[in-house]
């Protein structure tokens, strides 16, 4: 195989709880992860140069070892002593630094694509094991679908597919540092934790309204006081028919779940007209594995 085109799908967190801060500084989490049908596209071409080269439609993104795409390619190239080079053209649609695993899913796509192009014979589990060396979200991005993530996010349990429904995505102009959010998260007896176990039961029951009611993200306790625009976007989605709205990951992207496609389209139009968000997408739950 000479070249391959791969979709790198974004994720949202239907639930995100932080259990504790470990002695090594990492935080233990319990999250319900969900793939959505919003994606970057990577064109991966094998060549005889021996080098890893990449380009992207966003000029501010690095195209060297500071990009997870490059590091994923180098990981497999070094391990399997691949003599040929590859060129990766990355076309970004997923908002950058937005709590949607954009960089991690691009890395997962490269692992998948190189495995196919070079006939490495790695299973999905093999790719997930290598992915964790690149970042905690990469194994999930290889896996896709609906999953419970524990540990630092790398311990994954597949769940039954989430109910299909429209999903509205809105990212405001601001950027939020994941490091800032976790450093300022206060975990004490006053902290309200989302009930992840109940959310898992809702997903198994395929009850969209129960899922929406039990969604929760403990990191909003940091982001919303510091970035009130996130609450404004959430409120706007609710006012326009979302059954619930929440921040994904450490933000600042907000998503809303909808029961009805027409209502979701009207909410999309209203969000674009409001000027609250720089990037607005109307997409859907995506459950198909690779």
Summarize it:
It contains ten helices and eleven strands. It has 290 residues and is α+β, with helices and mostly antiparallel strands.
Would you write up a description of this structure?
The protein is α+β, with helices and mostly antiparallel strands and 290 residues long. The protein has 10 helices and 11 strands. The strands form 2 sheets. Strands 1, 2, 3, 4, 5, 6 and 8 form a 7-stranded mixed beta sheet that branches. A 4-stranded antiparallel beta sheet has the order 9-10-7-11, covered by helices on one side. A hairpin with a 4-residue loop joins strand 5 (146-150) and strand 6 (155-158).
Q: What distance lies between the first and last C-alpha atoms, to the nearest angstrom?
A: 18 Å
Biggest sheet record: 7 strands, mixed
CA-based shape: globular
Poorly predicted parts? none
- The percent of residues in helical segments reads 25-40%
Count all strands and give the number.
11
Query: Strand content of the residues, in percent?
Result: 25-35%
The number of helical segments is 10
């Amino acid at each position: 195989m000479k070249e391959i085109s791969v979709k790198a799908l974004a994720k949202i967190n239907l639930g995100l709880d932080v259990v504790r801060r470990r002695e090594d500084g990492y935080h233990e989490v319990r999250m319900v992860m969900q793939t959505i049908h919003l994606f970057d596209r990577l064109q991966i071409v094998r060549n005889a140069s021996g080098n890893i080269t990449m380009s992207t439609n966003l000029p501010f993104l690095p195209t060297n070892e500071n990009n997870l795409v490059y590091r994923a390619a180098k990981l497999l190239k070094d391990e399997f002593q691949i003599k040929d080079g590859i060129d990766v053209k990355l076309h970004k649609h997923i908002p950058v630094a937005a709590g949607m695993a954009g960089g991690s899913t691009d890395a997962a796509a490269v692992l998948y694509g190189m495995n196919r192009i070079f006939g490495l014979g790695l299973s999905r589990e093999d790719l997930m094991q290598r992915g964790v060396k690149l970042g905690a979200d990469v194994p999930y991005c290889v896996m896709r679908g609906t999953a419970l993530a524990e540990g630092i996010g790398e311990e994954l349990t597949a769940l039954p597919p989430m109910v299909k429904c429209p999903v509205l995505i809105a990212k405001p102009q601001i950027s939020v540092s994941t490091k800032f959010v976790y450093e300022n998260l206060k975990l004490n007896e006053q902290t309200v934790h989302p009930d992840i176990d109940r959310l898992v039961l809702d997903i198994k029951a395929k009850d969209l309204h129960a899922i929406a009611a039990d969604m929760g993200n403990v990191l909003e306790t940091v982001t919303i006081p510091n970035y009130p625009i996130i609450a404004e976007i959430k409120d706007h989605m609710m006012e326009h028919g979302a059954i619930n709205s929440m921040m994904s990951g450490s933000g600042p992207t907000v998503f809303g779940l909808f029961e009805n496609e027409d209502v979701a389209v009207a909410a999309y139009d209203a969000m674009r007209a409001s000027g609250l968000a720089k990037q607005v997408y109307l997409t859907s739950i995506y459950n198909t594995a690779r």
